[in-house]
Design brief:
elongated, 20% strand
Length: 270
């Protein structure tokens, strides 16, 4: 049982196997059981993996509880690390006892369709996990979780903006905030994928973070992209992460000027 549950068991499970409280106490004193929470023991040794910590937290709560919120996002690999306290959603509003190191949520509704198992650990589905994050995490963390879910191919049932990075998301919000025409996002033109494109105005934008655009190969790829777009008579603008994040007014002003000039004068729009 401990092997299936990442090294932990609950007293109620041991009782179902016929192990009495006296036998549990004896094993605890002998060092073969190690108390993690009230009613939950690690078997063999006290050192638990992340998965063991999450499983122990779920077992410490009433039956039917599931890992949720930030902890569920970490189990699904939507967010990095293992945060503390571990977050669990309990189906019952009874059993108000507290456990050190746990944050217990008591949602008004947690239907079966919002619960599942991942590597044997009861957890909220990716869609429910993101919904819970919207109420408890920062907007940046929610956006990161959604993008990672898309990358991993996890179902969310959400309409997303099509961006592939935090920088692209910031740029798209900049366009909306300054009431600029909405660009197409991550458009395939020839052999290249362009971050943002206004087809009627034949204007393309690439947002460049230093880490993803440094090095010889990145330099060569960028030059090839620029040459191809020029042959297609597509105007290309490049903005750094610093410009997008700290000088948004200048970026918006330049975009507005380019979009207006292309619409009303100069080169054709189609």
């Amino acid at each position: 049982m401990a092997q299936r549950q990442h090294g932990v068991v609950a007293i109620r499970q041991l009782a179902a196997l016929g192990i009495s409280s006296r036998m549990i106490d004896r094993r605890n004193q002998a060092g073969t059981l190690h108390r993690k929470y009230r009613g939950v023991y690690a078997v063999g040794h006290s050192g638990l993996s992340n998965e063991g910590e999450w499983m122990a937290a779920v077992l410490a709560c009433v039956e039917g509880s599931v890992l949720s919120h930030r902890s569920a996002a970490e189990l699904w690999r939507l967010l990095p690390g293992r945060s503390s306290p571990v977050e669990v959603s309990a189906l019952s509003r009874s059993g108000r006892q507290r456990h050190h190191g746990l944050r217990i949520h008591r949602p008004s509704s947690l239907p079966k369709s919002d619960r599942t198992l991942r590597i044997g650990i009861p957890v909220t589905t990716p869609a429910r996990t993101v919904a819970d994050l919207r109420r408890s995490a920062t907007p940046a963390a929610v956006r990161r979780a959604i993008r990672q879910a898309e990358y991993l191919g996890l179902p969310l049932g959400l309409q997303t903006d099509g961006t592939r990075s935090e920088l692209e998301g910031v740029f798209l919000r900049l366009c909306r905030r300054h009431h600029l025409p909405e660009p197409e996002v991550n458009v395939k033109i020839g052999a290249f994928t362009i971050d943002f494109y206004w087809p009627a105005q034949r204007l393309a934008v690439e947002t460049d973070g230093w880490r993803s655009h440094r090095g010889r190969q990145a330099f060569l790829d960028d030059r090839a992209r620029e040459a191809f777009l020029r042959l297609q008579e597509i105007d290309l603008l490049r903005f750094s992460d610093e410009q997008v994040g700290r000088d948004s007014k200048t970026v918006a002003a330049l975009l507005r000027k380019k979009l207006t000039r292309t619409l009303w004068g100069g080169k054709p729009t189609a």
